[in-house]
Amino acid sequence: MNIRPIFVFPLLSAIAFAAAGQVPVDQPATIRLDVNLVVINVSVLNKDGNAVSGLGKQAFQLFVDDAPRPINVFQGEDAPVTVGIVVDNSASMAPKRSEVIAASLAFARSSNPQDQMFVVHFSDHARFGLPPAKAFTDSIPELETALSHFAPGGTTALYDAMGMALSHFSRAAMNRKVLIMITDGGDNSSRAQLPDILRWAQTSGVAFYCIGLFDSADRNSNPRVLNELADLTGGKAFFPSDVQDTTKICMAIAREIRSQYTLGFAGAEDGKYHRIKVTAQEPGYSGLQVRARPGYFAAKP
Fold this sequence. Notes:
Distance between the termini: 17 Å
CATH architecture of the domain at 10-25 and 78-259: 3-Layer(aba) Sandwich
Structural class: alpha/beta
CATH topology of the domain at 10-25 and 78-259: Rossmann fold
CATH class of the domain at 10-25 and 78-259: Alpha Beta
Strand content: 15-25%
Mean pLDDT: 87
CATH superfamily of the domain at 10-25 and 78-259: von Willebrand factor, type A domain
Shape: globular
Radius of gyration: 18 Å
Order of helices and strands: HEEEEEHEEHHEHEHEHEEEE
Helix content: 25-40%
């Protein structure tokens, strides 16, 4: 992510901070990085699609706008991460609620114990799952309470929920940030607009992992949006045909996050979008596949 402060769209800011403003800063101290440092999370897969661990810095090549760039920061797999879990609580999700809670908890139990998590629920409006005095948690019981706190009902304010979660990430002490989003439909009641959310996600450095539990008869479902969010941010979208597969998917996401590498490089200061490409080569491996976000917006001079 680009550490220099990013302009936040006024409407989204008003939506997100209306609730977030009640939450005091409750997080460990962190070392402030250079304002021009761009941090990216990188997944490396072998030809069978399995994560490859144990690679060193020398295995990676970084290109920005097709020009090679030095890697200034490198961290191996299983570094702690801040995770936002965004859960659709609209009326149509009622039959899937227990499976979604179980899947979210399975994700947490499979994650690094040092990860810091928070929950955003949404139906006709978005709200935090943790109590106002708690910004993040690493406690499974607290997370279970946060996930179970609201009953399904109402419409779907998906974009508002994403805006609230993206704003809350500004409180995170960790530079690695992931958003898990579970929904069965599109958006039919947000104040926020999709183009603004897409731009905010693209500039945030947050990787989106989206799980669409879509009913083929639901006219509000919009898989294109989930795919676009995942592609823009270096995450991944899933569309299981059976809601019971959600737990398996969440555990797979946790394993992928724990096997990722963190790369950092000196960013530009021209306010422009720059393309990123990362490759990996290691003796004993052939055809390594690398997934990372495709670019970043530079800080303005």
